[in-house]
Amino acid sequence: MDPVISVQRVTKRRGAQAVLADVSVEVPRGQVVALLGPSGAGKSTLLRCINHLDTIDEGRIFVEGDLIGYKEEGDRMYELPDRAISRQRTKVGMVFQSFNLFRHLTALGNVMAGPINVLGMSRSEADALARKLLAQVGLSEKVASYPNQLSGGQQQRVAIARALAMSPSVMLLDEPTSALDPELTQEVIASIHQLARQGLTLMIATHEMAIARDFADRVLFMVHGELVEDAPSAEFFRAPRHERAKQFVARQE
Amino acid sequence: MSPEPAAAPERRALRIVHRRHFASWVFAALVLAFVAVVVSAGVKSRILDLGVVGRYIFSPEIVTGAINSIALGTVALFLAFAVGLVIALMRVSGNPILVGFSATYVYLFRGTPMLIQLIFWFNAFPTMFKELHLEVFGWVLIDVPMTRLITPYLAALLGLSLAEGAYMAEIIRGGILAVDTGQRDAARSIGMTTGRLMRKIVLPQAARIIVPATGNQYIMLLKSTSLASTIGYLELLRITTDIYSANFRVVELLTVAAFWYLVMTAFATALQTGLEKKFPHR
Q1: In this structure, what is the dihedral angle of CA atoms A226, A232, A238, A240, given to the nearest 10 degrees?
Q2: Of A5, A44, A31, the residue nearest A225 (C-alpha)
Q3: What is the pLDDT of residue A253?
Q4: SS3 for chain B, per residue?
Q5: What local confidence, expressed as pLDDT, does residue A1 receive?
Q6: DSSP states of A15-84 as a string?
Q7: B2 pLDDT higher than 60
Q8: Which residues contact B208 (CB under 8 A, 6 or more apart)?
Q9: Which residues of A touch B (CB under 8 A)?
Q10: B65 to chain A, minimum CA–CA distance in Å?
Q11: Cβ of A147 and B190 within 8 Å?
């Protein structure tokens, strides 16, 4: 089966330093991938590159067979125009560490923003969709609340609903629980778990063991921009191979 | 009775007395005394003939002047906003030429006195460009001497709008920069193009910073219309000056002018408060 996400030998540099060094990974449809590794390993950068929020210096990234952000012509890769990149991004949902809800819009307005402005959905249709998705993440009561009236966990669940509203084929979650206290983390994990059960393809950069061990199918472990270990989740936690991965797993015991 | 057990008889509920600010009350009394002295001195020496003030305050010339002032200031604000928006977007565009142009614009127009700019547009500009001639494929659309085209009103409008545009550019830029990049990332991630995310996400949030500052600028601009008196535009101050140079009732007529400027300011303040409610801080 064709992979939903295909990252092929991607390198990204910041100055002389490679933040992503020759990273390759293929994610089949419906797989839940946990992206682990110390801070600064390049986990967030990899996710941002898959959505072309960051540019790459070498390699190719495909989502659903589409080359993301560039067009190949001869021996060059030309960056696509704004409009074309925006169209590609509608297929990729993204959830951020700091939620990034639109502060001037209610929870409902946040979820409706994409369908109305990007998909051209009618207001009433978008309203119905947004209410359905907010109910799914358990926030039916909060549709009219503004982000500053919501807890961190609630904000992150709105952000998940906002990403879902575009009916993406993959969701990238960039440390979705790192800004939350343990109690709020649980409610967000429950929402993510639900996405996994629905069969959505997920890539989750995380430090949260409950995600990586309990419902991720596969673990990618990154160090200094390199993908040093790629294993089924159970195997990774039973017998990590890379030195840093061993330390990491040992610390979780 | 209180449900408290009788075990702690000494801990009676005492009345709490907050610290009193005696010094500030002493100072307040001094301020009040000062105001009383100034007002009574003014009344005693009859600095003001209220009859004259009353005769001019709603006179047709004065009211016309006030209307001209508020019209000039208001039109200039809208133009300045448009100029400011364009300059601010240039400034944040990242293109070195656009950034350089906008930075230079702000430096020149904010760095020179408005009065000089007004005189420049009225006196210097028409001598630099003698006439405005516009033709398309031999069809003459406009052909007028610049001195006819640049009326005092147009010169004042140009001067105020372009100068104020520089201030507005900085205000709008500040508002745009205050919206964190996470908002842009989020808007991009749901597929918004740069133009759309500016209109739908960044500018509405920048508005809560831009609006109060713009209200301030509106008040400044309404008062700056008085500069147009020097190039002969018949706004409030010019009309007032013309009247008192004939009848020498300087104090009364300046009082009348001040009254109308205060009315304008009150109007602008009310407008600002209303707009701020439309863009609440979140």
Answers
A1: -10
A2: A44
A3: 67
A4: CCCCCCCCCCCCCCCCCCCCCHHHHHHHHHHHHHHHHHHHHHHHCCCCCHHHHHHHHCCHHHHHHHHHHHHHHHHHHHHHHHHHHHHHHHHCCCCHHHHHHHHHHHHHHHHCCHHHHHHHHHHHHHHHCCEEEEEECCEEEEEEEHHHHCCHHHHHHHHHHHHHHHHHHHHHHHHHHCCCHHHHHHHHHCCCCHHHHHHHHHHHHHHHHHHHHHHHHHHHHHHHHHHHHHHCCCCHHHHHHHHHHHHCCHHHHHHHHHHHHHHHHHHHHHHHHHHHHHCCCC
A5: 58
A6: TTEEEEEEEEEEEETT-EEEEE-STTSSHHHHHHHHTTSS--SEEEEEETTEESSEEEETTEEEEPPHHH
A7: no
A8: A104, B175, B276, B279, B280, B281, B282
A9: 48, 51, 53, 82-83, 86-87, 89-90, 92-94, 96, 98, 100-104, 113-114, 117-118, 146-148, 159, 162-163, 165-166
A10: 41
A11: no
The token pair at A139 is: 């926030």
* B-chain residues near A90 (CB < 8 A): 190-191
Give the side-chain half-sphere CA count within 13 A for A104: 22
In tens, the pLDDT along B204-252 reads 999 988 998 999 999 999 999 999 999 999 999 999 999 999 998 999 9
Which residues of chain A, if any, have pLDDT below 70? 1, 253
Q: pLDDT class for B148, splitting at 50, 70, 90?
A: confident
Higher-pLDDT residue of B256, A253 = B256
Output the pLDDT for position B9: 62
Best of B180, B190, B192, B198 to substitute, by most chain A Cβ atoms within 10 angstroms, is B190
Strands A3-14 and A58-63, sheet pairing: antiparallel
Model confidence at B113, pLDDT cuts 50, 70, 90, reads very high
DSSP for A81-124, written as a single string = PHHHHHHHHTTEEEE-TT----TTS-HHHHHHHHHHHTS---HH
CA atoms within 13 A on the CB side of A118: 31
Q: Evaluate the CA torsion angle B253, B257, B263, B269 in order and state its sign.
A: negative
